[in-house]
């Protein structure tokens, strides 16, 4: 079932869809997460990653350029988010300038790469109505079951991660403070490296996470004689 967006038909008339963006609204998203997506992940033992993000300094843009332009901006950001995520993703306008997404069968590292690409697209966004306006996004991720086994815990963890992106400079993808396995990718790689990685992924029709794992495997093989045999099990 395609839960990502529904802009016409019966679902658009039953109070589940955001009128501006055509995405699921807050209430419908939470219902799907609690009643369908999480139970499915639990039953199958599959990963699931939750995303929360918002547009940095949106209120300032809205006040300076007007609500009509603010609506255009939100619509474009919503479209970029949909385009950056797989068809299986459930994407919602969570409220105001905040968006949410649930990515079934998607590990945290894979989601991180997808949202890093979304972050870059938002930062590069230019609108003909006000070409001088540039915006960025702050993004938080949380994974089932690592950061929570229910919708409330996952949302809380993703919100904490989004807040971390905000207070550490904005225009970032972050994880909850409790997770030390991964630091914002932009802390390690230059813009040029990230752009070339994205270009290579498109050329090879692969995702960036798989290319990064391939490079890590090559690195480990290079120093295999120093590392010794990998642990069993």
Q: What does the main sheet amount to?
A: 5 strands, mixed
CATH superfamily of the largest domain: Reverse transcriptase/Diguanylate cyclase domain
Q: What letter string, H or E per element, gives the SSE order?
A: HEHHEEHEHEHHH
CATH topology-level fold name of the largest domain: Alpha-Beta Plaits
> What's the arrangement of strands in the largest beta sheet?
2-3-1-4-5
SSE-based structural type: alpha+beta
Query: What do the pLDDT scores average to?
Result: 86
How far is the first residue's CA from the last residue's CA? 36 Å
Low-confidence stretches at least 5 residues in length (pLDDT < 50)?
1-11
Q: Tell me, what is the CATH class of the largest domain?
A: Alpha Beta
CATH architecture verdict of the largest domain: 2-Layer Sandwich
Radius of gyration: 19 Å
Domains (count): 2
Helix content: 40-55%
Number of strands: 5
Write down the overall geometry: globular
Q: Please state roughly what percent of the residues sit in beta strands, choosing from under 5%, 5-15%, 15-25%, 25-35%, 35-45% or over 45%.
A: 5-15%
Tally of separate helices: 8
What tags apply to this protein structure?
233 residues; alpha+beta; Alpha-Beta Plaits; 2 domains; five-stranded mixed sheet; disordered N terminus
Structure, described:
This protein is an alpha+beta fold and 233 residues long. The protein folds into 2 domains: 10-184, Alpha-Beta Plaits; 189-225. The protein has helices at 26-44, 58-65, 67-84, 108-123, 151-167, 191-204, 208-222, 224-227; strands at 48-55, 90-95, 98-104, 137-144, 173-174. Strands 2-3-1-4-5 form a 5-stranded mixed beta sheet, with helices on both faces. Helix 2 crosses helix 3 (67-84).
